[in-house]
């Protein structure tokens, strides 16, 4: 491997472009003797002449021409890298990998990402759908830059040792069922009402079903049966046909509930949620700018029942 440094490449480039040692030294802000020393040092390291003098002018040798070609590539790339680093520091360039713990948020997230990219064309925002089931894990290992997660509204997420939680909106979970269901006459439901019921939910691992794991099991109110479905539309259709009950975000399904279905509030702290855009504790400028933009855009979304942007 050649034992040369960046200064050697700068010297070759300056001499070739300026055409003389004097002007090259001025361009590099060094003395002519220092410039000559760099040339001699370089030629000693590579064991070949880089310049030759003909008729009082300096010309690149065959070796010098080859080094000049490489010097132009390296110096150009380093200059480009410097500009890109400054752009990244200023939040104007780079890639943001984002995911969310809930597929339903993809109904509005792509719109925000598209608008952000239109305003910041040098920033690429990628949705990592493979990280949906454990976004904080992927955030911690560096796969994600931003994660969208929810926590019970009464749970404070300030001063977390690993992550920075920025609240963006609040929503409410409701229980939906057919009007033919026996529970439909109730005004409000409690966790105990889920006993012996059939719960229709999204197709996630049992341990990732927060309603069952964090609410119903601790209350000894597990449903008799659980039916897993991949799509919101399928869940609503099965509820409409009275195959069971479901718990979903009010803002998501309020406009889709038919006349023969009903929504009931769930009396539990779990039903009120705050959604956060989460990063590691030390945010870079790109993350800060995207989160600020997303919060502003969420406040501008049309008003929807059960959806409250954080001001």
TrEMBL record:
One MF annotation (Gene Ontology) recorded for this entry: DNA-binding transcription factor activity
Cleaved signal peptide residues: none
PROSITE patterns registered for this protein in UniProt: HTH_LYSR (PS50931)
Keywords: DNA-binding, Transcription, Transcription regulation
Domain of life assignment: Bacteria
Any single Pfam family the record assigns to this protein: HTH_1
Domain annotation HTH lysR-type: ranges: 4-61
PANTHER family xref list: HTH-TYPE TRANSCRIPTIONAL REGULATOR, HTH-TYPE TRANSCRIPTIONAL REGULATOR METR
Family per similarity comment: Belongs to the LysR transcriptional regulatory family.
Name by which UniProt lists this protein: LysR family transcriptional regulator, regulator for metE and metH
Organism: Chitinophaga jiangningensis
């Amino acid at each position: 491997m050649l034992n040369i440094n960046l200064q050697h490449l700068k010297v070759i480039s300056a001499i070739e472009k300026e055409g003389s040692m004097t002007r090259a030294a001025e361009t590099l802000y060094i003395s002519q003797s220092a410039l000559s020393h760099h040339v001699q040092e370089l030629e000693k390291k590579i064991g070949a002449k880089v310049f030759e003098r003909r008729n009082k002018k300096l010309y690149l040798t065959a070796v010098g021409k080859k080094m000049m070609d490489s010097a132009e590539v390296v110096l150009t790339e380093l200059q480009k890298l410097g500009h890109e680093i400054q752009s990244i520091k200023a939040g104007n360039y780079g890639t943001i990998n984002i995911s969310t713990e809930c597929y339903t948020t993809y109904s509005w997230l792509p719109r925000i990402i598209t608008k952000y990219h239109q305003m910041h064309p040098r920033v690429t925002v990628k949705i990592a759908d493979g990280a949906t089931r454990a976004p904080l894990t992927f955030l911690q290992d560096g796969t994600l830059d931003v994660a969208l997660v929810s926590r019970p509204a009464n749970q404070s997420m300030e001063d977390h040792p690993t992550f920075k939680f920025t609240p963006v909106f609040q929503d409410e979970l409701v229980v939906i069922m057919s009007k033919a269901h026996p529970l439909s006459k109730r005004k409000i439901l409690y966790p105990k009402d889920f006993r012996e019921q059939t719960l229709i939910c999204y197709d996630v691992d049992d341990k990732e079903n927060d309603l069952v794991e964090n609410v119903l099991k601790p209350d000894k109110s597990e449903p008799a049966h659980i039916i897993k479905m991949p799509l919101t539309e399928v869940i609503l259709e099965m509820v409409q046909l009275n195959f069971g009950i479901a718990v979903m975000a009010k803002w998501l399904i309020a406009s889709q509930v038919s006349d023969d279905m009903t929504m009931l509030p769930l009396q539990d702290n779990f039903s009120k949620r705050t959604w956060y855009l989460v990063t590691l504790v030390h945010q870079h400028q790109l993350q800060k700018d995207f989160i600020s933009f997303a919060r502003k855009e969420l406040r501008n979304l049309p008003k929807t029942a059960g959806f409250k942007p954080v001001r």
